[in-house]
User: Fold these one by one.
Assistant:
Number 1:
Amino acid sequence: MGVEPENTLRSFVRAEEAGMDVIELDLHLSKDGALAVMHDADVDRTTDGSGPIAGKTLAELRALDAGQGERVPVFEEVLDAVKSPLQAEIKDVAAARALADVLLARDLVERVEVSSFHDEAVVEIARLVPGVRTVLVASHWSGDIVERAKAAGAQSLALNIRRLTLEVVELAHAEGVKVIGWVVNTQDHLRLARALELDGVTTDFPEIRRTGRFTA
């Protein structure tokens, strides 16, 4: 989202061309059950429309400009537009069920990792899609965050790097849970990620991968 309209096919193609390991995206259900790719629950911030995604049909979402003439994509279109591995963030259990149908129908267990802020959504997607890799996401958390990940069956934690501590990373690693830091958009945060020995980071600026080799 730092260089292209976020959650659009244009942005995903740019990320793939930049050589990113994984492309992260966000999923919400439209009024008619489509897996719309958008971060917010409403369309106001990233399109020229207004109102909640859940109150709009896919056709109504398609009529919106998501930036530079891009349209709101659905998950299946992203699968076809890029070949990279994907990390799909789901916002609730209903989205988990819709995503599970696609993952099973297209045999995507190896390609798509599923993340969520909601423990129950992580549990649900794992129940519906045996073998799927899952990530529990958190911005604020308490001392039980690693226990929560283990209880939900998540293989990884994605945590706000501004609040991440070495203690949490070491505890997670001791329990066999990987840790991803978000969002790493500066060289200082990249240096911190390396110092903490994180398993990965997310960024809005693909070029940080290239420049970080020399400066971080």
Note: The radius of gyration is 17 Å.
Number 2:
Amino acid sequence: MTKSPDRAPLTREFFDRSVLEVAPDLLGRTLVRRSAAGTIELRLTEVEAYAGEVDPGSHAFRGRTERNGVMFGPPGHTYVYFTYGMWHCLNLVCGPEGRASGVLLRAGEIDVGAALARDRRVSARHDKELAKGPARLATALDVDRDLNGSDLFGGPAPALSVLHGTPPPRDLVRSGPRTGVGGDGAHQPWRFWIEGDPTVSPYRAHAPRRRPSTKAT
């Protein structure tokens, strides 16, 4: 039986391109998460591009470290990081090997496995909130650092993979500044989303952390 075109997996060559080509092209694609608990399929609705050593907003801006090493390739792997001591975030590595870049998966609509996602996201008031934001997306899919460096093409049933899905019409793709990015990388219009989709997360500008005052009162 022939697979429907939208069920065909993307190729590694898809990810072996500039991050600014890959990021908007991921919108509408189907992210598949397989685990012992079951399978979840999610239609990507919001992403952000990070261009490594030329991007002040990227974890790889100051070069390669133990933490960000997977961002330097090869393409088609996952970069998972832990933030604020609480949350994981999922990125897909792209671009030529040796040049760090990745796409942060910010939001999506769960098409398959919503019951499983609800069990992991008990605070969600509606299904549209299950993966509305990068930490929520990772939580719904049970993504943690154990999946860092996972190969999207690692065998017939990898833990994470991406199917062709149904990309939106180009006139529905929007771009703007990345959420929560400050400094010299604050104004790059490298956040991409599907206009009008209810699962897209709200934009928030960077808010510098303030240290507690040490003055006596």
Note: DSSP finds four helices and eight strands in the chain.
Number 3:
Amino acid sequence: MSSHRIGLLVPSSNTTMETEIPEILRRQSALTGDQFTFHASRMRMKTVEKSELAAMNADAGRAAIELADAQVEVMAYACLVAIMSQGNGVHRGIEEDLTRTAADNGCAVDVLSSAGALVEGLHHLGARKVSIVTPYMKPLTALVAGYIESEGIEVQDSISLEVDDNLAVGRLDPSRLPDIAADLDTRGVDAVVLSACVQMPSLPAIPAAEKRLGLPIVTAAAATSWKVLRTLGLETVADGAGALLKKN
């Protein structure tokens, strides 16, 4: 049995990342015996709009240094839209910069992002075409869809719930997501991104959405958890957490 320290780079108004990711890894632990502790550093962001997201990105180095002091074994920057709104492909540079910052402060650790994890996870599933649900205003959803498409995955359809207050996003009812996703155009898609946001609660809805849609379901939080486990070299399994974490 192994024990691992997970570092979380968290928007200050996020209330979901520190519940869903630990819950997914608890389910992994129930199957494998691996153990995890979670250590967070927060960056100021209340409204999901480009200037606040850019300011939060600028503060990420400070948060990574704080987590470096805890000697965590992996860091996850879990605000997908903060990265995707800054330009196509930028997750690679942000991950590299934060990894370098952590190393310069005595913690040789990989830093991953929800943005990169979602794209990598969809490629891992062989998904060439997806439909997505986001809580964002439509212009930000368009940026997210464009980002995914720039990574070689077509976005056939999207639904924007148009909630810009990040705390309100965390209060959205996940039980509504299967019905919301059922309104997507899913003809010919390979997977559905049920929540393209780690703040929008989605974990409880994944099994029902899989049953309702008959398609592989991915969420930003599940993809982040999957990438954390891959980075640590651990088994990527967790019951009820979607296509990326199904036991083969």
Note: The chain has a mean pLDDT of 93.
Number 4:
Amino acid sequence: MGFFDLLRSRSKGEPTVAANTWLVVGLGNPGAQYAANRHNVGQMVADELASRIGAAFKSHKTPSRVAEGFLRPGGPKLVIAKSNSYMNTSGGPVSALLKFYGLGPDRLIVVHDELDIPFDTVRLKAGGGHGGHNGLRDILKATDNADFTRVRVGVGRPPGRQDAADFVLKDFSGTERATLPNLVSDAADAVEAIAEDGLVAAQQRFHSPA
């Protein structure tokens, strides 16, 4: 955003957005009864990121709670959001946030649970389909199938014949909970790496064999 753009935005009463700003949306369902579900791991990552930058979530004009701050002095700014709506209707809040901050989908990072990746694994990609994930499905619909960045947090496949929808709406198992803080931390690291170094560099770091 140039100097005259800043002046125009201020004159309209619109938010002034730092040049290197990223909207980071952690997907999940609102309410204490869902907070520890596998489906809410995206919001767990959002909480971790907000804690790292020392920002608190506050009510927002869009139907979301938002925490804002810089990764470091002079570094990228993160607008971290958790929707007040349910997972299946994530698109409206995400679209409203992009419009409010004047950001394009190229500045959107969506953090979500992923059944097709083993638990305790993080994978990064830009673009693609929804893969049956209803949160992604609604965001794609609301953004005209835009290519945004995804941080895919592996929760693994349900055991036996358990339904996938039931599986993601259950809390992590006791064994998983012992490792969960590391998984959440890794996903937060991945968001920071994308914002600081770009997707390709972040992929090289997080997709490399340990």
Note: The chain is about 35% helix and 20% strand.
